[in-house]
Amino acid sequence: MGRSTTSKDAQALFHSLHSAYASTPTNLKIIDLYVMFAVVTAVIQVVYMAIVGSFPFNSFLSGVLSCVGTAVLAVCLRIQVNKENKEFKDLPPERAFADFVLCNLVLHLVIMNFLG
Amino acid sequence: MAGRKFPTVLLLILNLLSFLPFLTISFSPDHPTDRRILVLLDDLALKSSHSIFFTSLQSRGFDLDFKLADDPSIAVKRYGQYLYDGLILFSPSTDRFGGSLDLEGVLDFVDSGHDLILAAETSASDLIRSVAAECGVDFDEDPSAMVIDHTGYAVSQIEGDHTLIAADDFVQSDVILGSTKIEAPVLFKGTGHSLNPDNSLVLKILSASSSAYSANPASKLSNPPLLTGSAISLVSVVQARNNARIIISGSLDLFSNRLFRSGVQKAGSSYKYEKSGNEQFVTELSKWVFHERGHLKAVNLKHNMVGGTDEPSMYRINDDLEFSVEIYEWTGSSWVPYVANDVQVQFYMMSPYVLKTLSTNEKGLYHTSFKVPDVYGVFQFKVEYQRLGYTGLSLSKQIPVRPFRHNEYERFITTAFPYYGASFSMMAGFFIFSIVYLYNK
């Protein structure tokens, strides 16, 4: 009784989340997918490090930090281009994307230097 | 004819002059045996009563210069150069030396690396006592005290007062006493001494037995004697840090012909030795003290990378290196390879990071190889070899160790490929994302 109620509730919650997310604009969905990709890559690397040990520690750090940095920058972009955020309504999305590209270039330059 | 002869004679004289250094050969680092020895005596009669000892020295090539201890012409030093390599003080009752020699002079003589044999007796003078005290040996304060042993005395016709003792408690050291075991006990008649515990260089060579004590044999023993048992040293040696060697004996008779030739039978033992051990004991000891034995030198300290031959000016952390040094022992006439299995090298920076025992090829070469530790700084190769009876070796050679240069680190480590992959896929992802994001409308 209790369990079926819980799973039903979870199902209902999931369903409502899904339907609410379906109304998200496509460009934000693309950013979400990109963030997911970065986070999964980071998790894979952490698991790999736990298995083989931390020997080329600088390589590990740059690998993981490139994923984390990418995810953070993508989230920042998502905040700035979201129409519902009134805070950034004066900021054109083109300007936000240009900032994103610049930050990414700096991030990857640093990562390449630190990679080993 | 005469004009042609003259240059020939000149040439001959020049030739002879060039041999002069070999004729006046003396103590030197390459030839460490002493040659010129000053013998100071109380009485010239000692020259004949101790002739066996002196003759054995002379037959081994020593140049003995006998002088009375109060001879006003005594000088050990002229123009800052020492005239002698060794000093034998057979003058126990001298209150002050003649000439320019004094206590300070004797100590300076030893401090500059020269050797000394000092024999005292009962009623030794304050001068002799203070020389001994400076060397770390304290003679019994009672001037009339002798070492008495009622169980370890030497049997003689008359019962006597048991002051002629038969001592056989030698130090276990082949380098000091020679490799041949001294079978017969050593006859000793004289005063005992104790070693100053603050002096770590002085060493008991011949100790009294546990039943011995030091007291005046003529008077009744009213107080317990100060020196008793095997704490009494009969003969002691010092090997100073500058490799000067000193023998201090509480008995001048130890060196005498009478005791050299005397038979010995220890009380309680039925076996009578035809000849006492004195001659062998004194001869071996004098070989040691005058550097005919136990003098080491270390040469050719070398180090290089494994596989290389040149000596680098610097090593990198984790380099593999080879270290070698040659050690020779002086036999009195030539240098022979020194063979031991306990020579160690330290790779030292404030404390030894590496301590390795060197292996030897039995031809004098000691070598080892090791890895430079994962620490950079200014290191030293150090060989500290201090063994009983041998001259101390103390070598060090400085060598800096540097860390990896930035371009000497490993590149493209296999383990790190997933990380490389992740970084590059992030870049590719950024590129693809940009295209998709810009053209998705």
Description:
Chain B: InterPro entries: DDOST_48_kDa_subunit, OST48_MD, OST48_N. Chain B: Residues 303-441 form the OST48 middle domain. Chain B: Residues 36-289 form the OST48 N-terminal domain. Chain B: Pfam families: OST48_MD (PF23358), OST48_N (PF03345). The complex is a heterodimer of chains A (116) and B (441). Chain A has 116 residues and is an all-alpha fold. Helices cover 82% and strands 0% of the residues of chain A. Chain A has one domain. Chain A has helices at residues 2-22, 26-52, 57-81, 93-114. In chain A, α2 (26-52) runs antiparallel to α3. The longest helix of chain A is centred in the middle third of the chain and has 27 residues, at 26-52. The radius of gyration of chain A is 19 Å and the shape is flat. The mean pLDDT of chain A is 92. Chain B has helices at residues 2-23, 46-49, 51-59, 103-111, 126-134, 174-177, 257-261, 278-289, 417-438, and strands at 36-41, 63-68, 77-78, 81-82, 86-90, 115-119, 137-139, 146-149, 165-167, 169-170, 186-188, 193-195, 202-207, 212-215, 233-239, 245-249, 295-305, 315-316, 320-330, 335-337, 344-349, 351-357, 359-360, 365-371, 377-385, 393-402. Chain B folds into three domains: 25-289, Class I glutamine amidotransferase (GATase) domain (Rossmann fold, 3-Layer(aba) Sandwich), CATH 3.40.50; 295-406, Macroglobulin (MG2) domain (Immunoglobulin-like, Sandwich), CATH 2.60.40.1930; 412-438. With 441 residues, chain B is of the alpha+beta class. In chain B, α3 packs across α8. The longest helix of chain B is centred in the N-terminal third of the chain and has 22 residues, at 2-23. The interface between A and B is medium-sized, with 33 and 22 residues.
